[in-house]
Amino acid sequence: RPSLSVDPVAGLMLEEVSLARIAAVVGTPVWVYSAGTLRRRLASLRAALEGAGLNATIHYAMKANDNLAVARVLAAGGAGADVVSEGELRAARAAGIPASAIVFSGVGKTERDLRLALAEDIFQINAESAEEIEMISALASSLGRVARVCLRVNPDVDARTHAKITTGKAENKFGVAIGDAPAIYARMAALPGIEPIGIAMHIGSQITAGMSAYRAAYAKLADLVRALRAAGLPVSRVDCGGGLGIPYRDEIAPLPEALAGAIKATLGDLGLPVMIEPGRWLAGPAGVLVAQVILQKGATRRFVVLDAAMNDLLRPAMYDAWHGILPVGAAALTAPLSPADVVGPVCETGDTFARGRAMPALPPGSLVALLDAGAYGATMSSTYNARPLAAEVLVDGARFAVVRDRQSYEDLLARQRLPAWLSP
Ligand code: LLP
After folding, report:
1. Residue 177: phi, psi to the nearest 5?
2. Which of 153, 173, 172 is nearest to 238 (CA)?
3. Which residue of 11, 60, 197, 245 pairs with 206 in a disulfide if CB–CB is 3.0 to 4.6 A?
4. pTM
5. Is 252 found in the same domain as 272?
6. 143 alpha carbon to ligand 1 midpoint, in Å?
7. Residues 193/196/201/202 CA torsion (nearest 10 deg)
């Protein structure tokens, strides 16, 4: 993890800033993101696509991390956005991503979502059902607009990732069955208010099992595009989705060159521009969650109880996900290790970040960093147990700034009302 290093005095550093210093200034738990890592990863992804000779655009999946500063760094590097809600569309625009670089995905866009997408004249809407296409056509026509629409197909391949984040099997709710796509696409071409511009797919997330699922899905897509063209239907682009996995532990994750190669080999001869929608690959390794040890307890089993919990970083509880955990203090980084369960203070056994993990002694007040927490970390947080949302910090070289304030207890209660009849 190139942006993390150890200073013999200051301990764990992200770029040139000590995480202990950030914790001292901002408090814990706190998400800390590296601008340099975001920039480097975006650049290497682009280099891989260009190296394969692809005419490709990158649309960052905002769901991974919708912090405005994170999106701004990626936007400045030339990324567009993939959004799935009005909130994400607004965040993308607020971060400076032009409407002309925004794709709207999602299996259940509301009329309100679509109205905003049309009003903003975003680049592309990915439709996921015949029903949605009728809805888009009716709405766009009534507003005097033409929606550029890609049809998301479900290629029925197994991306061999966690069942909860597999999206390209026939049994999953996403897209239209690939066999139904030609008829639906023809219908799109016939309807007012819709300009059919291409085909989209996304087969799942945290894909590490090589390129075979991607290749199988893209090959089906290529056949579909050829069939549509043969039927005289216009196809001007292919949206290849996101899903490229990262190594959280010791997985051998495919490199962007492998993805670019798979796209080139299967879709290259169509001569179409392609798009990808990466979220995790860009943002995951760029962030850590810094937490403080409240106490260690247990005689037979050592529990390290943090002030961060499943409401902050849900992935271990939700997907049994493994996240690296490093002590932040210089001395602890070289101290002897023994097994510990690293847990949060929430009243659920699932509130466990790691079981039997080799950790140094971590007396109360020590800091730890949960690694690779830049994607699906803060965005999946809740206020469960009435715990305020943690602060977010961006590090850029030797600078750092709070990019989202910690939620206050006033904020936490601000939207609640007691009905008059309950008044004393
Ligand atoms: N495009 C679409 C249509 C998607 O549904 C997703 C993710 C992406 C792109 C970005 O996928 P990525 O490149 O980040 O893998 N919360 C889960 C991950 C859920 C992913 C949902 N869709 C986790 O923490 O592992």
Report:
1. -55, 135
2. 153
3. 245
4. 0.97
5. yes
6. 31
7. -40
Same domain, 20 and 41: no
CATH code of 85's domain: 3.20.20.10
The answer on whether 376 is annotated among ligand-binding residues is yes
Same domain, 100 and 246: yes
Contact 77 CB / ligand 1 (< 6 Å): no
**How much distance in Å is there from the Cα of 54 to the middle of ligand 1?**
23
Residues 306, 392: one domain? yes
235 in Cβ contact with 229 (< 8 Å): yes
**ipTM topping 0.95:** yes
From the CB of 83, is ligand 1 less than 6 Å away? no
* 125 and 249 assigned to the same domain: yes
Residues designated catalytic: 347
258 CA → ligand 1 middle, Å: 19
pLDDT in tens, the chain (424 residues): 779 999 999 999 999 999 999 999 999 999 999 999 999 999 999 999 999 999 999 999 999 999 999 999 999 999 999 999 999 999 999 999 999 999 999 999 999 999 999 999 999 999 999 999 999 999 999 999 999 999 999 999 998 889 888 888 888 999 999 999 999 999 999 999 999 999 999 999 999 998 999 999 999 999 999 999 999 999 999 999 999 999 999 999 999 999 999 999 999 999 999 999 999 999 999 999 999 999 999 989 999 999 999 999 999 999 999 999 999 999 999 999 999 999 999 999 999 999 999 999 999 999 999 999 999 999 999 999 999 999 999 999 999 999 999 999 999 999 999 999 998 7
- Domain with 98, as residue range(s), is 35-283
Report which DSSP code applies to 210.
-
φ and ψ at 255, to 5 degrees? -85, 160
The answer to whether 406 is annotated as binding is no
**CA atoms in the 13 A half-sphere facing the CB of 22:** 37
